[in-house]
Amino acid sequence: MSLQLRNITKTFQDSGQDAVRNVDLEIADGEFVCVVGKSGCGKSTLLNLIAGLEKPTAGEILLDGAPITGPGADRVVMFQEHALFPWLNVIQNVKFGMEIAGLPKQEQEEKAMKYLRLMQLEEYRDYAVHQLSGGMRQRVALARALTLDSKILLMDEPFSALDKQTSNRLRAELQDIWMKTRRTIFFITHSVEEAVYLADRVIVLSSGANSVQDIVPIELERPRHVYDNAFVEYRHRILDEVQKEL
Amino acid sequence: MAENIQKGNSKIAKLLQQLLFLLGIVVLWQLLYFVGVDVLEFWKPYAMPSPAGVWKSLLRLIENGSLFAAIGNSLLRGMIGFAISVVIGTLLGFLMEHFKFLHQNMRPLVMGIQTLPSVCWVPFSILWFGLSEQAIIFVVVMGSAFSIAIATDNAIRNVPPIYQKAALTMGANQKQIYRKVILHACLPELISGLKQGWSFAWRALMSGEVMTTCIGLGQTLITGRNLADINQVMLVMIIIVLVGILIDQLFFRSLERSIYRKRGLL
Ligand SMILES: Nc1ncnc2c1ncn2[C@@H]1O[C@H](COP(=O)(O)OP(=O)(O)O)[C@@H](O)[C@H]1O
Ligand SMILES: [Mg+2]
Fold first, then answer.
1. What residues are in contact with ligand 1 under a 6 Å CB criterion?
2. Residue B167's closest chain A neighbor by CA?
3. Which of B236, A222, A140 is nearest to B227 (CA)?
4. Is A5 left (phi over 0), alpha (psi -120 to 50) or beta?
5. A29 and A142, same domain (yes or no)
6. B44 with B119, same domain?
7. What pLDDT does B212 receive?
8. Of A126, A149, A172, which marks where a domain is finished?
9. Per the count of CB atoms within 10 A, which of A6, A85, B54, B78 is most buried?
10. How far is the centre of ligand 1, averaged over its atoms, from the C-alpha of A19 (Å)?
């Protein structure tokens, strides 16, 4: 068992709003968890709490038994906007986290190339960020996140700013990578289809008294197909959950 | 390729047009002088500069060596003053950004001082330093350091928070955030701030120079007045504009451009 959230509540001081309410959750090692819910129901806040970018008002978060006190490289975040640095080229961006960690130059180079190759971006190693398409940028951001071998990868709607075709391709690539590496992933999306496609468990958040409305284990073989009956059934069930919310 | 040539051509055409426009103004000016001074005797010759007179002044000041000495001295002084301003301004700006207390209390004060025209520092400066080099440099620093401080504060504050968040979750500490993220992220805006700081410094320099007796463009301007030589006065004014523009274009504009281009902002 790797990540534990114990009765987490987050109240923002300025608005006095409870963005996250009474969340109890355990995420196992190597698990792929997706979070869905209406916009404004607290998904990003929950992710920021795990990342350590926000502090919970009540409750505690444990990573391998140790409480989280702030942000760190064991919980890398991938954001909806790519958050690559425009003053660095592709490979320099990919190396950024490893440079922070103080890895030897040789190792940085090898690892950066390994993940660029995995994302099929090795020819773009010296490109400037602005020369890449939106999908390529997110793949560079993913490569950068993967180099850090973090205990858990936090992703906040990473594909939702992309067109449908690109985001479908990226989610297939992500599934591939996950099957190869079995990283622990906490993945926010507003697309129920994306959640059912990727997740071991889908967490449905609501704005009710308890943030977690339901947790749905997806018991489908991978790779999954969106037209399978079982897939469609899961999709409808979760969509109903999301929409029934008051 | 063809597009590039066309772009280059239109650039040259634009430049040519600007040159022709300037030439037109010079011709018009000479004509005005001819009609107003020579034909109608409406203006006294000593009260009206002319392109020909300015040209003669230029040749004379080049020949006796005073023009380049003046330009060199003014530039050197301006650069020393500007360099001091950059150090003080960026440091102050950084502190105002970093400490909330300073941002809340110091920044309004700095903004207030910044609105003071630099010539207002001259009497104070002379009382402190006498009619000396230091007095002029003090005026330059007072005239530009505060605008650089405000610009630095703004530039850092305007860095999109997502860059810091991304670096934080990759394990960066506060020092690394400043060195590896904020310093680079704020650079385009910071350079613009320095550019503006330079234009303030150059103006302040002239306020300082006309009040003291050190060799420089400001002093050459005052000598022209003392000799009642309006052509020399006009010449120096033109040179002050040209030198200011030259530094702006040659240094700051090209620096700005290369940074913007590298980031795809152009
Ligand atoms: N920094 C903040 N300060 C105050 N309120 C916030 C802040 N961040 C988010 N909120 C509020 O918390 C609620 C949940 O926001 P968020 O977690 O971003 O939702 P989601 O990601 O599910 O769309 C929203 O009502 C939002 O207005
Ligand atoms: Mg969100």
1. A 12, 14-15, 17, 19, 37, 39-45
2. A97
3. B236
4. beta
5. no
6. no
7. 84
8. A149
9. B78
10. 6
CATH of residue B78's domain is: 1.10.3720.10
DSSP secondary-structure letter at A37? -
pLDDT per position as a tens digit, A177-228: 999 999 999 999 999 999 999 999 999 999 988 999 999 999 999 989 999 9
Based on the domain organization, do A68 and A171 belong to the same domain? yes
The predicted pLDDT at position A107 comes to: 97
- Protein residues near ligand 2, an ion, with CB under 5 A: A 44
pLDDT at B2 (0 to 100): 57
Of B136, B9, B22, the C-alpha closest to B80 is B136
| Residue closest to B240 by CA, chosen among B214, B209, B195 | B209
- Alpha carbon of A224: minimum distance to chain B alpha carbons (Å): 31
The Cα B90–Cα B149 span in angstroms is 5
Question: Which pLDDT does position B5 carry in this prediction?
Answer: 66
Domain that holds residue B5: 1-48
Task: Count how many domains chain B has.
Answer: 2
Please choose, from the candidates B214, B217, B215, the residue with its C-alpha nearest in 3D space to the C-alpha of residue B203.
B217
Question: B22 and B55, same structural domain?
Answer: no
Pairing label, strands A58-63, A152-156:
unpaired
Q: Give the domain range for residue A207.
A: 2-76+150-244
The pLDDT of A162-170, averaged and rounded, is: 94
A211 and A221 in a single domain? The answer is yes
Q: Over the stretch B42-74, which tens digit does the pLDDT of each residue have?
A: 888 888 999 999 999 999 999 999 999 999 999
If asked whether residues B57 and B31 sit together in one domain, one would say: no
One domain for residues A13 and A105: no
Residue A1 has pLDDT above 60, yes or no: no
Confidence (pLDDT) at A203: 97
Does A1 or A205 have the greater pLDDT score?
Answer: A205
Residues of chain B with pLDDT under 50: none
Q: CB neighbours (10 Å) of residue A240?
A: 11
